[in-house]
Amino acid sequence: MAVKKKIPMRKCVGCGEMKMKKELMRILRTENGEFVVDAEGKKNGRGAYICRSAECFRKAVRNKGLERSFKQEIPQDVYDRLEKEMDGIEQKG
User: What one-character DSSP code corresponds to residue 6?
Assistant: First the structure.
């Protein structure tokens, strides 16, 4: 009998769809409370996953998906910076 390898699945905080972890981007809150885009998904900290599209990011902002995931209010300047970082990564990929 062949053993099937389990594929890690995560839920996008924008659209709410379950997708493979590799298809999503991780937004991370570091230990000192800073929010960054973790493209590799390897850094330490509390993370939330989002599709690699600007549309899903806008949905997450509109429905407060990131705020629910991190259980805190997120300032607008953080959203602006995250959007710029995601645009740069989206264009590379």
Answer: P
Please tell me the distance from the alpha carbon of residue 67 to that of residue 46, in angstroms, as a whole number.
12
Q: What are phi and psi of 80, to 5 degrees?
A: -60, -45
Cα distance between residue 59 and residue 16, in whole Å: 10
d(CA 35, CA 86): 12
pLDDT tens column, 17-66: 999 988 888 888 988 888 888 877 788 888 999 988 888 888 999 999 98
- What is the C-alpha separation between 83 and 76, in angstroms, rounded? 11
Distance set, CA 84 to CA 1, 6, 9, 28, 37 (Å): 48, 33, 26, 15, 10
d(CA 68, CA 62): 12
Task: Return the closest-CA partner of residue 28 out of 40, 10, 16.
Answer: 40
